[in-house]
Amino acid sequence: QVQLVESGGDLVQAGGSLRLSCAASVTMFRLYAMGWYRQAPGKQRELVATITGAGSTNYADFVKGRFTISRDNAKNTVYLQMNSLKPEDTGVYYCNARLSPQLPDYWGQGTQVTVSS
Question: Which residues lie below 8 Å from residue 38, measured CB to CB, with a gap of 6+?
């Protein structure tokens, strides 16, 4: 029911920046929340940042001050601006969407972010 199209993953040196994009097939205000998660090899998938349909945001402690989640309502797109990237930020980044707390989440295909030292 919800289609998510991601872009922006790349190889970047430590200290560099990337912006990830996730275009949704529904308006942000129809969604309970959207978010970004990441998973490194051998590790559990972890929350990076979330944004509600009304625009409230939440961040994991390890990205506060470096990453920013935002949205463009006209484009039905959520962004993750990543600055001051570190090698430990390396992983597959997934876009997530919820229609309601009662329904299963929708996930994007994932995009690889690699930060070299």
Answer: 45, 46, 48, 89, 91, 92, 93, 94, 113
- Nearest in space to 98 (alpha carbons), one of 25, 10, 8, 30: 30
- In angstroms, the CA 88 to CA 117 distance is 10
| Three-state SS at 62 | helix
Q: Give pLDDT tens digits for 25-58.
A: 988 778 889 999 999 989 999 999 999 988 899 9
Beta strand spans in 40-109 (E) = 46-52, 57-59, 67-72, 77-82, 91-98, 106-107
CA distance 55 to 40: 28
